[in-house]
Design a protein that fits this description.
By secondary structure, this protein is α+β, with helices and mostly antiparallel strands. It is 18% helix and 39% strand. It contains one helix and four strands. A four-stranded antiparallel β-sheet has the order 2-1-3-4, covered by helices on one side. Strand 1 and strand 2 form a beta hairpin. The termini are far apart.
Length: 66
Amino acid sequence: MNDGTITLPWLVIRQDDNGNRYRVGRYATRAEAQKIADSLDDRGHKQLYWVEQIGQNGQSATSTAN
């Protein structure tokens, strides 16, 4: 991060029961993103939440489903 910007490479993604996917938020660490995904998942709704990491090219590099 030499240019002074903050990098938020971890995404929390939500998929509803119709298959639509939405970005819930971006986070600095995997642990922070996973904590948010877990707290949303614990609410008991039918939506699926997972964590993805954005790669250097802006594409999703990894994903961790709950």
